[in-house]
Structures are given as C-alpha cells and as structure tokens.
C-alpha cells in the first residue's frame, strides 16, 4: 500500500486541518485582540478629586502629567468611589483638605497625604497600569514637595538671620532706622530671588532615563507573540497526534507496524515543514516583521511542531484517543512552564522542572531571541530537536512491544 494513500487517509488530512485551524485561529484572534494593550490604555477614565481649595493649580499639573485622555474632575469623593466600584473610572487621585498647608509646614508636624484609589477587581493589565501611573505621579509630586519645603526652610532661616541683624542695627543706630530698613528690604528681595534661582536649578539638576535593551514594539500583541505563536502550534499538535495515530493503527495491520510508523514520521516531517509556512505567514502580516525573521520563526516552529507531534504521539500510541487525557494536562502545564508570561527563574519548582522537558519553553525563548533580541537561539533549537528525538526513541520501544491490532477498520 502506497505512502500516497497513507497521506490521503482521514487521520492525516484531519491532522493537517487541525494544525492549520488552531494555528491560524489563535494567531489571528489573539494578535488582533491584544493590540489594545497598551495602545488604548490611555482611554481608561480616571478621576481627580481635589478637596483643598488652595491646591487648585495641582489639579492642572496632574492632568498634564497623567497619561490618560479622560480625566474627570467634577466628582465628589463619594461619587468617584461609586464609579470606581462600577468600573466607570479605574483610578481616583484624592487631594485631601489642607494638603497645601501641610506641604508648606516646615515643622513637619503634619503630613501632606495624596491618596490613590485603585479597584483591583479588574484585569492585571489595568491594575498594573494604574499602579505605575500612581507611583510615577507620586514621585513627581514628592520631588516638588521636598524642593518647596527645602526652599521654605532656607528662606525662613535667611530671613530670620536678616531680621536679627536689622534689629541689632536699628538698636545700635536708631537715627538711621529708615535707611537700615530700606537696605534690609532690598537685601530681603535679593535673598529670596537668589534662593528661588538656586532651587530652580536644583529642580532641573536631576532626571532619569530608561535605556531599553532589545526593545519590544508597542502593543501587548508584540510582547505576547512568542507565547501565542508557540501555543497555537502546540494545541494543534495535541489534537493532530490523536488523529494521525488513527491512520497509523488503520494501516499497521495491512502494511506492518514499522512501515506504518515510517509513514507516520514522514507525514509528521511534512506537516512540520509546510504548516508553519502559512501560520507564521499570518504572524508576519499582523506583526510586520522582516523576511529574515520569518524564516527563522519558520525554522523554530517547524522544529517545535516536529517535537510536539512526537511528544503527543507517545500516549496516543499507547492509549489511542484516550491519550488526550494525558496530553491535555501536559499542554496546560506548558502554558506556565513555557515561561511566556512568567520568567523561568521565578516559576514554582514543579513548573521549573517541567520547563526542561517542555517543547513550548524552548520555542518561546527562541521566538523572543528572534523577534526582539537574545543569545543562544541555535542551542535552543538543538534542545528542542532533542526532545523530538527522545520521543521517537520512546515510540520505537512502544511499537516493539505492541502487537498488530486485528479487526481495524480499513483506512478510508
């Protein structure tokens, strides 16, 4: 019986359809859906509730600093909290009463406490964004407060010293009081100007810059691309292995186990070479990477699909369609152990151990290297390929101890 007929069997055709279906579906849906993060985060509404009439300029300052387009300033604190719970706003910045006076209090007997309210019953991307915005704004205002207090302390000390000197001079020369006071006022104005100038320079004497190494283009669909690309192939391989083993078991009584297995491995090789051309091609269209990147990603996911199909084939050979009862949990484990969302270094020990035998881990790390930069891609490819080779060795052991099935329906 010819290899052509094996390729035309329902299991092989079903495998091809499943790999393409899940690959194109996941890449198309997830890449298009996750484009909203962070591109549209600035459209999340927030509220500023200023309860201190002396801090009105601070409201305008905060509106300029916050990275959000919809900032509500006409709500009471109670109204804002109600909208926060209803998810009509996602952050409240509350300037309490006497905030400005507390800022100016150089005795430090009172505290100027700016309050940020965040509803954590929201997606992590939302709460993380609001936390980052709150910390950035809080640091800027704290810097301003410290400068203002330092300026106030220095000004008060200088003016107190000047007042003391003026009092002593007037006491010693009462007939020149008018002249002394005139000179004192001029000195006072000059001193205040000098202090203001000094603190103006201090305010501009520090800044910080984030230097990005291997920057990722803006958009969550870019940062999640290695995870989604890899998972799309792995899910397809899990179901495809279940289907392709039906062709193996249908043909093995007719042409022998070893020849049927040879056809199975050749089919896996063809699927691994051809289907990534289309699925990675959709990724190229949606992420707009160059042709060199395309071919490197094609190689990564060809090796991934080869290894994943062979790994999933292990329990499909042993248990038939029930093999999915083992393959499905292993796939779910790889969602975490693949380290596409959580770095391997901080994974729980179980998932860290599983990452070493996880095809997804090596594919995801390779994708990060290829798309955004990193070292050791060739080593990752070899490690990924080695998983497939070990799986094939296990197949050989399984097939050696399996008996030809009888009564199998002839291949269609």
Give a brief rundown of this model.
By secondary structure, the chain is mainly alpha-helical.
Fold and architecture overview:
The protein has helices spanning 3-7, 10-33, 36-39, 56-65, 77-85, 99-104, 124-172, 177-203, 220-223, 225-255, 257-287, 291-319, 324-337, 349-355, 359-372, 377-401, and strands at residues 46-50, 71-72, 92-95, 115-117. The chain has 412 residues and is mainly alpha-helical. It folds into two domains: 3-35 and 219-401; 37-203, 3-Layer(aba) Sandwich (abc type-2 transporter like fold), CATH 3.40.1710. Helix content is 70%, strand content 3%. The longest helix is centred in the middle third of the chain and has 49 residues, at 124-172. It has a four-stranded mixed sheet with strand order 2-1-3-4, sandwiched between helices. α4 (56-65) links the parallel β1 and β2. It is a multi-pass membrane protein. Keywords: Membrane, Transmembrane, Transmembrane helix. It is found in: Membrane. The chain crosses the membrane at residues 12-31, 227-248, 260-287, 307-332, 380-401. This is ABC transporter.
């Amino acid at each position: 019986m010819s290899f052509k007929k094996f390729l035309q069997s329902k299991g092989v055709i079903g495998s091809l359809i499943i790999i393409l279906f899940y690959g194109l579906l996941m890449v198309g849906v997830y890449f298009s859906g996750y484009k909203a993060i962070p591109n549209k985060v600035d459209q999340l509404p927030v509220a500023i509730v200023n309860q201190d009439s002396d801090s009105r300029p601070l409201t305008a300052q905060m509106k300029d600093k916050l990275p959000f387009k919809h900032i509500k300033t006409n709500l009471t604190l109670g109204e804002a909290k109600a909208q926060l719970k209803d998810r009509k706003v996602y952050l409240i910045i509350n300037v309490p009463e006497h905030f400005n006076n507390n800022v100016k209090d150089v005795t430090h007997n009172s505290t100027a406490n700016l309050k940020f309210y965040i509803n954590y019953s929201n997606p992590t991307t939302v709460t993380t964004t609001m936390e980052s915005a709150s910390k950035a704004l809080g640091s800027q205002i704290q810097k301003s407060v410290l400068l203002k207090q330092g300026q106030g302390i220095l000004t008060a000390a200088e003016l107190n010293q000047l007042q003391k000197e003026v009092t002593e001079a007037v006491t010693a020369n009462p007939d020149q009081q008018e002249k002394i006071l005139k000179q004192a006022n001029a000195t006072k104005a000059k001193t205040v100007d000098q202090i203001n100038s000094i603190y103006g320079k201090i305010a501009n004497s520090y800044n910080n810059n984030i230097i990005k190494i291997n920057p990722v283009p803006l958009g969550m669909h870019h940062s999640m691309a290695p995870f989604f690309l890899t998972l799309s192939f792995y899910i397809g391989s899990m179901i495809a292995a279940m289907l392709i083993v039906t062709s193996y078991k249908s043909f093995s009584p007719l042409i022998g186990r070893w020849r049927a297995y040879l056809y199975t491995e050749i089919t896996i090789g063809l699927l691994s070479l051809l289907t990534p051309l289309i699925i990675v091609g959709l990724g190229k269209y949606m992420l707009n990477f160059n042709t060199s990147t395309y071919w490197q990603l094609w190689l990564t996911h060809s090796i991934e699909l080869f290894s994943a199909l062979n790994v999933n084939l292990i329990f499909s050979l042993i248990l038939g369609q029930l093999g999915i009862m083992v393959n499905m949990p292993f796939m779910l484990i790889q969602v975490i152990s693949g380290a596409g969302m959580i770095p391997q270094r901080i994974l729980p020990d179980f998932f860290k151990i599983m990452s070493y035998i996880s095809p997804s881990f090596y594919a995801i790390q390779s994708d990060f290297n290829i798309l955004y930069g990193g070292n050791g891609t060739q080593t990752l490819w070899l490690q990924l390929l080695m998983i497939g080779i070990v799986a094939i060795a296990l197949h050989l052991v399984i097939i050696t101890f399996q008996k030809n099935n009888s009564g199998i329906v002839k291949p269609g």
